[in-house]
User: Fold these one by one.
Assistant:
Number 1:
Amino acid sequence: MSQVSLNGDWTLTSPTHSQLSIPMSIPGDNYHALLSANLIADPYQETNEKQVQWVRECDWHLSRTFSLSSSELSASSLLLNLSRLDTLADVFINGELALRSTNMFQQHRIDIKPFAILGENHIEVHFSRVNEEGKQRANTLPMPIPWAVGNNQVPHMNLIRKTQCHSGWDWGICLLVSGIYDPVYIEVIDQITLLSVHTEQIWQQGSVDVSAVVHHDQISDHELTVTFGDQIQMTTTCGSGLTVVNFHIEDPELWWPAGYGEQPLYSLHVDLNTQSISKKIGLRQLTLNNKVDTIGSAMEFVINGFPINSKGANWIPMDAMPSLESEARYRELLSSAKDASMNMIRVWGGGQYESDTFYEICDELGLMVWQDMMFACSLYPSTEAFLSEVEPEIRQQINRLKDHPSIVLWCGDNEVIGAIGWYDESKNNKTTYTVNYDRLNRNIAQWIAEEDPSRRFWTSSPCNGDMDFGDAWHNDNRGDMHFWDVWHSGKSFSAYLDIKPRFCSEFGFQSWPSFAEVKRFVPEHDWNVTSPTFEAHQKNGRGNSIITEMFTRYFRFPSNFEQMLYLSQVQQSIAIKTGCEYWRAISPICRGMLYWQLNDNWPVSSWSSIEYSGRWKQLHYHAKRFFAPTYIPFEETDKEVQIRVVNDSRFENHIDGNVYWMDFNGEVLGQWTINYSIEEDGNDVIWSLTKEKFQVSANNSFFFVEITVNGEKVQNTWFATPTIKQLTIKKANIEVTQEDNRITLQSDYPAFFVHLEHDGKGRFSDSSFTLLPQEPITVEYLGDDLETLTHSLRIYDLSNSY
Ligand code: BMA
């Protein structure tokens, strides 16, 4: 089969600005095209976001020509493939309307043969304003449908099937982009069309039967070849449009989440009449255990019969300008997740169904995916018109994605059950709005069940369980939970210790960007946390106040702007670590924790652990430790401090190491050796000390544990006084020596949150750690810009932040 690619150069014009005509590269978005043509200031810099809002007040036209040869034109069909077409788009071929699309999440494969001509053809896509359409739709609704006020800067975007955070979020710039974000191409089809292939797995003891279900045009007697791994089968199609080919695999190599085993992938190829489809298939059994137990009910993913502790973060679209998405950046972000010991990513409902590349990389890395449907924080209509717009989206997306072993759950939305309680209209009319929600949600559930019976559908995140519309922000005994009492409600970090979630799918604490990141988008005259640029890059109304107020609760106030940035990342690390460490300590009660949020889609102050540039914040280095498969959390009980060892592994693991109780001069007050074998999926107390023993010197000392497991070192530090400002920490003098990419740090006094930063690309093998006196630590720089590293390397630590 041949293809005519329509990627690359198109022309962008606007009927609203008749003079404007610029090149635009597809896949891509109009904002990026305008930026590349120097027609707008970079929206990510300074306070430029405001100045570029005129773009959404215009209609936009995209056009190009393409040529068709006589053999192409004589094909039986010419299928134009368009997906991630954003959003209200009329597609014209040679002046004739070929497609009208109103949902950016729908995929189109339309035959343009009736409009095509020999030689030069013209394609034009007219995008009309979504803000206008939103207003109009709002006027015709049977009842008001409130939108995500506080997040969206543009009203009624909940009525348009478009990435919800395009109109701004509490970490997101408002860029109401439009364009086409997937490759565009025409398939030249002779005679019959190969439509799709999907697999089903039926498991027996020690073997699996894989059926490849091939959809094609209704035509008989064509040869179809299907290869699965090293098995090849040839068959002839029958007239039904569906051919099923079965494979039996003895002793299959199992796909496991990261940390639990390998990720072998079997290749699947289907060939039919010069057309082919290839996929990589992982063989694994999946269940979600929600069994009722003495606490409430479980929320535990079980893979290949083994219970998994899910650890990870929430994913938002990688860039507010889709032109800047790339495979390299997907790989970098997802590898960073895996490198921080994560095994699950939640694709959050205010973003997008991600591109194939995203899920392929997750399959490869062993990152399980919790997949939301794209609805978030607003209410949504359940009118016939809306349902008929959503149905093809859901069916197509589930079909596109269901062969990925990484995907473990389909979830209806983000926080839409909760949102019923947020808006006056729905608060005052709860039954009507709950029925409205239920109608949409049940339809989604049914479409998904029809398309993919192999996975569970979860009503919403958070949700207490099937058809349970309870308060999943506070009920910790069942379902998944979004716990925001610390950030949004101002509780102390210790509030994380007051709940025992079964699965906490969101909880977060903001930090400011690092100094290195700030230098990239804040002009020097605005290096101040209340400057216009800084405030414009903080989208959560009280965000900067919360960060600052928390400083006063826990820390000595930082001495300058740069130290404020540093300390904000220490603070964020402590917050999230407090939750994760405790929830791991109560395993298996808690079987999942996904903090909010992994990444940023522009440079901003946010809850992310990876900055827009890809740089790891301190939290990400901490996550690498507190999510480590075999970890040593501290736990405080009424009478004691304990160290546990939790082993998220299918195998027994041996640990050895030391526990130190040390004062801030570096004097060892107590030392214990650890030598312990921890069983698979185990959780044991391995050390404890009664509080009476250390309480008198609580402000003058700390506990430190370091273990080696499978050749890897993991450390953990615990202060008996959580209000760190009261500790009598000594000013540390940290000596730095660099030999190529190896940096050795040595301190005279115990130093905490010792963090390396530089202005270039590339991270370190470790950072934001505790450095004991006279016990040098050598870290590796994992990057290729030694020059920038050498001239910009900075070392921060807590004692020198004030
Ligand atoms: C969560 C998310 C997002 C939001 C975050 C921080 O609940 O679902 O809507 O960005 O809170 O407020």
Number 2:
Amino acid sequence: MTEKTRVLIIGSGPAGYTAGIYAGRANLSPIIYEGDQPGGQLTQTTEIENFPGYPEGVQGTQMMEEFRTQALRFGAEIKSRKITRVDFSKRPFVCEDDRGDVIEAETVIISTGASAKYLGLADEEKYRGMGVSACATCDGFFYRKRNVAVVGGGDTACEEALYLSTLAKKVYMIVRKNYLRASDVMKKRVEAKENIQILYNCNTVGLFGEDGVEGAKLVEYKDTPREQVFDIEIDGFFLAIGHRPNTEIFKPYIELDAEGYIKVKGATTHTNVEGVFAAGDCADPRYRQAICAAGTGCRAAMDAEKFLMENAELS
Ligand code: NDP
């Protein structure tokens, strides 16, 4: 089956839904492909305290449900499917979804976000779903009154550790430097928690356990004369070491930076391919905030609308 659209939005975080709201209000009847994780990364977090308009905070899932409802209200069509292949070599652009259906789009807004990074240890694969996780809110419940570890020293790691500290008996934070990179407010919160212990200057070299994770092997002061190896007993091992942009399928056509983030032109959302725009975390190595993603989603829809007006012969 081949469908046609004026604006195809790939991805459904704050960027994708906001692009849907703006393109819908511009009467462009956008189609949003939600992908594997409808609502994006915010559906895996707990409370969001820094999105303006929610002075008391809001649950990530609730906020994304509200974004989605608003996009639907203005005429966006939302598909619970994933785009798996694109051909941006000519217009209209041809994209294929995970059921093999084809969609021809006059413009495309890429808002595919980013996914959690892993350390790259073989044991992470071995124990995936058996004690290894990159989402405390999804899996924390299984570790009530047990010991867990969170890897990372940024805001995400602090947030995950704080959440887990309300369920688990003890939470270790495994931090490779001698300081936390997180914001002051988060640092103070984790430092004040009695059942969080921060292990500075530590790297994980392996996990062990019979039928699931029972412990982690750590190295303190790696590659220095003070180096020492020790074990911690844990049932859950949570990764919070940042994210990788979901841009793999666009690589043949779209210019990416060394980390895989989409390069946009100046203060616009234009990519190197005319008619293809990028918004949100997939094009933002610097800020990676929901409010910024929503802002670029708005800009991408406006850029697409202008492009369609200037290239009216396309429709
Ligand atoms: P960050 O990139 O900020 O932090 C990643 C952390 O993981 C760092 O401590 C880093 O260590 C560590 N790390 C990276 N790779 C490895 C590795 N291979 N082994 C061990 N440790 C590693 O990512 P976050 O996801 O925490 O945050 C991303 C952005 O989102 C930030 O801008 C953050 O402020 C924001 N954010 C804001 C929130 C809020 O305001 N409530 C909540 C969550 C995120 P090192 O410091 O040594 O590089």
